[in-house]
Amino acid sequence: MHPGGHLLSVLVFFPALGALALLLLRGDDHVWIRRLALTISIAEFLLSLLLIPGVPLGAAGYQLEEFARWINVPPINYHVGVDGISLFLVILTTFLTLISVIASWKSIEHRVKEFFVMLLMLEVGVIGVFFALDLFLFFLFWEVMLIPMAFLIGIWGHERRIYAAVKFVLYTMTGSILMLVGIIWLYNATGTFDLPKIQQFLQSGALVLPARTEMILFLAFFLAFAIKVPLFPLHTWLPDAHVEAPTAGSVILAGVLLKLGTYGMIRFCLPLFPNASRRFAPAVAVLAIIGIIYGALVALVQPNLKKLVAYSSVSHLGFVVLGIFAFNPISMQGAVFQMLAHGISTGALFLLVGMLYDRRHTFEISEYGGLATPMPKLAAFFLFVALSSLGLPMLNGFVGEYLILLGTYQVHWNWAAWAASGVILSACYLLWSYQRVFFGEVTREKNRTLPDVSPREKWILVSMAVITLWMGIGSVSFTRRFAASCQNVLDQMGPGQAQEAAAPAKSTLPSGSTLVAMPKKISVERTASR
Amino acid sequence: MFPVREDMLRVMPELIWCGFGVLVMLFQPFVRNRHFFTFLALLGSLLGTLSAMWPAALGGTAFGGIIQADAFSFFFHLLIGLVVSLVVLAAGPYLERERLAFPEFFALTLFATAGMGVLASAQELVTAFIGLELSSISSYVLAGYRRESLKSSESSLKYFLLGSFATAFFLYGIALVYGATGTTNLSRMADVGTSGNLLKLGFSLILIGLGFKVAVAPFQIWTPDVYEGAPTPVTALFSAGPKAAAFALLLRIFAGVPAVTQFWFWAFWVLAVLTMFAGNLGALVQTNVKRMLAYSSIAHAGYILVAFASVTFLAQEGAAAAAPAYAAILFYLLSYALVKLGAFTIVSQFGGEGEKHLSLDDYAGLGQRQPFAAAALALFLLSLLGLPVTAGFFGKFYIFKAAVNSHLIWLAILMAVNSVIGAYYYLRVIVVMYMREPSAETASSAPMRFPLTVNLVLSVAAAGTIYFGLFPNQVLNFVLQTNLLGH
Predict the structure, then answer these.
(1) What pLDDT score does A530 carry?
(2) How close A140 comes to chain B (CA, Å)?
(3) Per-domain boundaries in chain B
C-alpha cells in the first residue's frame, strides 16, 4: 500500500468537504465563493497528480487500494483502487473541473454558490465512479453524479434547459436501473459485489456464467454504458443536453461524463462477460461505425455551432467504442488515449464556443463570419483545437484515432475502412464550420467590435493547447502507463474463438508490456516523418 | 376468565394509546389550552411506543393465542408509534391554522393508532378485524375533519362507503377461511394445512379487503380523492400508518404456511404489476402535488407487493429462505413512512390557509425563497425516486434483490421501468422548485416561517432518510437476526 494511505478517499471526498465549506459562505459574497472554489479545485488537481507516482510503470493491477466494511447484509464494502486506465481519467476530471471553475468566473452571475457546489459534487461522483472497485459502490457514485449534472443544465442552462435536464436524467436512469438489476443478479451468482474477487472467480474457473445469463447481464450493463457514451441509437439526449448546458457543464459532460460509459465497458463488460462481449462485438462495432459516420454527417449540416461540437462527440466516441470492441491491445490503448484526447480537445472546443456565446449570445453559425479580423487570437486557438480534434498528426486527436484504426485493422480491416471515413468527415465539418465562422468578410456589424480573448481566457486556452501538443508528441509518456492495464483487461477476457484472427499478429510479438507500448512509438515516428 | 398480568403487558402499547385517547376526551371540557392536548397526545403516543418493549421482552402469545408478541410486532409498534408521534407534532400548527378543534383530532388519532397496533400483532383473524375496524372508523372521521370543506366531506364519505364495502369482503373472507379450516387462528391454520378452493376463496376475499386498505390496484380508486380531500396531516398518517399495519397483517397471513403456494405468488405478481402501473401512470398527469403524492403512494404499494411476490415464492422453501425478502418489506415500509411523512408535512405547510396552494405552479422558485424547506422536500422526493444516499434507495435496492433472488427478473425489470416513470414526476416538482422563477404574486409575499414543531418533524424525517441511506445495517440486522414471525 502507498505510504500516503488514504489518497483515493481524500481525492473522492475532498471536493465534498469543499462543497460543504462553500455552503457556509454567504450567498451574495460572489468574490470569495469563486476564490474558495478555485482554491479547492486547484488543490484537488494537485492532489490528483500524486496518483502518478502511486501507479508504477508496467503494473497491471489495482494500486493504492483501500478497503473498509460498510454494510453487512449484503456484504457491501468501500473498496477503491486505481489502475493505469482510471489514473489519467481522474486527472482529466480534476483538470477539467479546475478549467470549468475558471471558465465560469464571469459567465455565471446568479446563484453562484449553488453553481460551484454542484460542480464540486459532480466531481465527487465522477471520481468515485473511476475509483470504485465494488459494484455497488460504483452504482452509488454513478447515480450520485446524476443530480448535480441535471441541476447544472437545468438552472444555469439556456432556453430549453429544463427539457434537456429532464431528458438527460430519464435516459441515464433507464440504463442505470437496469444495470442495478444486473448488478444484483451478478451478486446472486457470485455472492459478492467486489470486482477483483469476481474477476478472480472468473479467472480461476470457480464461477462459470451460463451463456444466456452472461448475455443478459452483458446487455444490462452495456445498455447503461451505451446510453452514457452515447452509442448511435441512444444518443438523442446528448445534443439537447450539450446545447442547453452552460459552458462549464458542457466541458464536464463532454470531457468526462461521456467517458464514464466507455470506461464502464472496459472495466466491467469486457472482463466480466468476455464471451458475451465477443458475441455482441460485431453488432456493437456496426453501431459504433454508424455513430462515427452519422455523427459526422449530422455535424456537417448543423447550423448551430454547439450542436456541431456535440455531434462530433458522438462521432469521436464511436471510435472509442470501436477500439474497445476490437479486443486488440493496440486499439484498446488507442481507445483509452482517445478518451483523454477527446476530453481535452472537445473540452477546449466547448470553451471556445462558450466564449463566442459570452460575446454574442448565440450559437448560430450564420450569426458569425469573419471573426478572425476582430479576434485573431481566439481564431488561432480555435484553429489549433479544431485541428487537434480532426486528428492532425502531432496533436492529440491523431494518436488515439490512429491507434484505434491500426489495432482494428489487424482484426477486421473492413471495420477500420469504414471508420476511417469518419476521420475524413471530421476534417470536413470542422474546417468548413471554421471557415464560415472565422474567415471571409465580417458579415454582421456587431461582430466588428468583439473583444479578443481576455488574459483569463488566454491562460485557459494556452494550458489546454500545451497539453494538446504534449499528448500529440509525447504520447508514449501516457500510453506506457496504461498499456499494462489494457493488456490486463484483454488477458482477463481469456482466449476466445473470435480472437483467433488476431492471434497471429499478437504471437509475433514477445509478450510483455513494454512491447505493447511500442506501436505508439511507431505512430509518433510516422507523425514526425510527415 | 380473568386476563393474567403478562397478557395485559403484551397489549400495553394498545392500552396506553387507547387510555390516552380517552384521557384527551375527558380533559376536553375542562382544559382550554390547546397545546395541552398536543402535549398529552404526544406523551401518550411516545409512552405507548416505549411500552412496546414489554411485549417484545416477554414474547409469546396473549389471550389464548390471539395476540402475538414477537420481534415482528415490536418493529411495527415502533414504526407506528414513530409515525403517530410525528403526525401529532406536525398537526398542532395545522389545526391552529385551519381553526379546527384539537382534542377530538388527537383522540381519534390515538384510537386509530391502537387499531393499527392490534392489526400488527393480531395472530387471529377476528382480532385483526377488530383492529382494522378500530383504525378504519377513526380514519373515516379524520378524513372529514375539515367539516366546512366540501372536498374533505367528499373524502370522508368516499372512504367510508368504499371502506365499509372492503371490510365486508374481509369479514366474509374470514368466514370462508373458518369454514375451510375450522379455525381463525393463523398458527393453528398452519397445522390444518388444507389448500382447497374454499380456503383460496376465503384468502382472496381477505386479500381484497386488505388490498383496499393499502391501495392495491384494482382497489385503489378511492386513494387520490381521499388523500387529496383529507387534512394533510391526516393524509400523512394514512399514507404511513394504516398502510404499514395492513401490510403487517398481509405479511403474517400470506407468509404463513397455508398460503404460500404458487397460486398466491402469481396473485401478488399480477397485483404488483397492476399497482405499479396504476400509481405511476396516474401520477404522471397530476398537477396537484398532494394528489401526485397520493398516486405515488399507490405506486409504492406496488413496489412492496413485488417483495410480497418474492416472499411467497421463497417461503415455499421455508421461512429462513424468505427472511431477506421480509427484511426488504420492513425496511421499505420504514423508509417510506419517514419520507412520505416529511413530504406531506411540507405540502401541508406550503398549502397555506384552507390548503389553497397545492398546485405545482405554487412551488415555482421555492428553491430560492425557502431554501431549507425546498431542500428537504427535494431530499424526500429523491428518496421516493430511489436515489443513493437516501433511505429510499436501499429500500428499492433490497426489493430488487429479493426479486432477483427469487428469479423474478421480469418483475424486477417492470419495477425498473416504473422507477423511471416515477422519476419523471418526482423530478418535475424539483425542477419547478429550483429551475423556475416564482410567479409575481408569490415572489412578493414574505417567505413562510415554519413552526418549531414542524421543523422538528422535518429534521427527524430528513435525518432518518439520510441516516438509513448511509447505514441501513441496524434495521436489517434487527430484522434478520430475530426470529421474525415468532413461530
Answers:
(1) 38
(2) 6
(3) 260-487
